[in-house]
């Protein structure tokens, strides 16, 4: 299920984004960005619709995915 960012409180959205960008294995290429810059990049991608927030009822978890990842994921369910 897609969750519009506007449906989350500021604190919940910030926490979700911070958890996402601090996960092990998140790759930002050859440039190192600080946490604030990473969070700002993800927020901008959410606003542009490049990234979506999903709720997986099977695992009862929330995650961020690119549009393409979401389309692939949703076609399997």
Description:
The protein has 77 residues and is an alpha+beta fold. The longest helix is centred in the middle third of the chain and has 14 residues, at 35-48. 45% of the residues lie in helices and 18% in strands. The model has no long low-confidence stretch (mean pLDDT 87). It has helices at 10-21, 35-48, 67-75, and strands spanning 2-3, 51-56, 61-66. Strands 1-2-3 form a 3-stranded antiparallel sheet. It starts with a strand and ends with a helix. The chain contains 3 helices and 3 strands; from the N terminus they run βααββα. A hairpin with a 4-residue loop joins β2 (51-56) and β3 (61-66).
Helix content: 40-55%
* Poorly predicted runs of 5 or more residues: none
Coarse morphology: globular
Radius of gyration: 13 Å
Fraction in beta strands: 15-25%
Number of strands: 3
Ends distance: 11 Å
- Strand sequence of the main sheet, in spatial order? 1-2-3
Q: Assembly type of the shown chains?
A: single chain
Question: What class, by secondary structure content?
Answer: alpha+beta
State the major sheet: 3 strands, antiparallel
Mean pLDDT across every amino acid position: 87
Chart the SSEs and their pairings.
Elements: E1 2-3, H1 10-21, H2 35-48, E2 51-56, E3 61-66, H3 67-75
Antiparallel strand pairs: 1-2, 2-3
Helix pairs in contact: 1-2
Q: How would you concisely characterize the structure shown here?
A:
This protein is α+β, with helices and mostly antiparallel strands and 77 residues long. It has helices at 10-21, 35-48, 67-75, and strands at 2-3, 51-56, 61-66.
